[in-house]
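Write out this protein's structure.
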Amino acid sequence: MRLLQSHIVGSDLRRVVDLFGAKVDGARVLWAGDTALVVAEDFSWRTTSNLLLVVTFVFDADSSCTVFYAVGGGGLGLAGLDGGSETNRADRLVRLLQEICRERSWAIAGE
């Protein structure tokens, strides 16, 4: 499993969840108070199996948010090797969020 973290600061920041969810194929967006989850499965050609993607947005305020990216599954063989598919997908999710933040002039820090 691969886990990364980012922190975003900007105005009207809660919009980031819907913007992000709309760009992840097959994603579902779930809200519980000040926390939102974007959940999806993604097929990995490297291991010919699915990866589970869970991106959690925890809002400290309307202008501050911590984001956790968790990608797991897709293991191959007895050792459960993922051939780099978890890391690759987690990095793509981070780049997607960075692109959204850049377009909206939101500040992002983290991996």
